[in-house]
Amino acid sequence: MTVLDTPAWRPRTDAAPLLPDPEPYRLLGTPAAAELDPALLRTLYGHLVRGRRYNQQATALTKQGRLAVYPASTGQEACEIAAALALRPRDWLFPSYRDTLAVVARGVDPVEALTLLRGDWHTGYDPHEHRVAPLSTPLATQLPHAVGLARAARLTGDDVVALAMVGDGGTSEGDFHEALNFAAVWQVPVVFLVQNNGFAISVPLDKQTAAPTFAHKAVGYGMPGRLVDGNDVAAVHQVLAEAVGRARDGGGPTLVEAVTYRMDAHTNADDATRYREDSEVAAWRAHDPIALLERELTGRGLLDDEVRDSVADDAETMASALRERMHTDATLDPMDLFAHVYAEPTQQLRQQEAQLRAELEAERQS
């Protein structure tokens, strides 16, 4: 027997079924779209329009000083909405900082979803209420958390599935590797959604990875990789729903790459014209996720002016309420700095709390 014949050198699984398709999966504009549920398409459309208006209003709030920063997902709404709607109420969503639309579509209050970006609480909502983990500003740190929760659910016999969202830049972090490796080894019920919008802030895709696609990375960990058109909301929803169902049935994790584009700058503090051409943005605007779905709905007689106006009015009502509530100054208590840090405060934390309390009292008496 040679060294190469030992079991350690033999493939642990057949790689062929794990490989993604050569082209992103699409539904809208194809014959298969005729089989899509009209009610689902209308629901997706309503969420997309509200999501676009939410992005616009939140961006405006940064210019008015009501938000410290806002990373818009304009152009990526299909990924956001599909992720939220592919889950059952008891499942968990693990978002990144750009995924406010997914958080709101999951049922979180629109204002509470912006609290972190307002510079107030670390998380403005109760993660357990809607099963949405805190918006993660460090890159990819939410991925191991999703794996841990999914692992715990599997050990206890709970059929919960975790869906973890990350940008293409997050795939360059060690947390990405660790999460996928443990997820595959343990075969836990988790779905990883990589929103490939072409840039990690200003770093283009070809400076991040030499892999054929991000979906191909799945093979190295021993899980299936799926490649989907991230602007085709019906396709993203179908792919994610299948991956969630597979995970729930004990099939283990899936890595989904949604090819999309960030039409706006990275945040309001970014100048995107320094690293990409206007012509590139214009080309992607022609592949706008809302326009793609509108074309499908109109062609099937599912969208007329009355429906379009009703959806637009609903989105404007949401934006108006968001604007009004965000223009109300928050009541802040400096002592909240010490709340919810540890279940049992450390001695140093107690000393700092006492010092601040004494300083505030002295200020009141002066």
TrEMBL record:
Cofactor: thiamine diphosphate
NCBIfam families linked to this entry: PDH_E1_alph_x
GO molecular-function term, one example from the UniProt record: oxidoreductase activity, acting on the aldehyde or oxo group of donors, disulfide as acceptor
Organism listed in the record: Actinacidiphila alni
Domain (Dehydrogenase E1 component) ranges: 55-316
PANTHER family noted in UniProt: 2-OXOISOVALERATE DEHYDROGENASE SUBUNIT ALPHA, MITOCHONDRIAL
Record CDD domains: TPP_E1_PDC_ADC_BCADC
Protein name: Pyruvate dehydrogenase E1 component alpha subunit
A Pfam family annotated for this UniProt entry: E1_dh
GO process annotations (BP): branched-chain amino acid catabolic process
Keyword annotations from UniProtKB, A to Z: Oxidoreductase, Pyruvate, Thiamine pyrophosphate
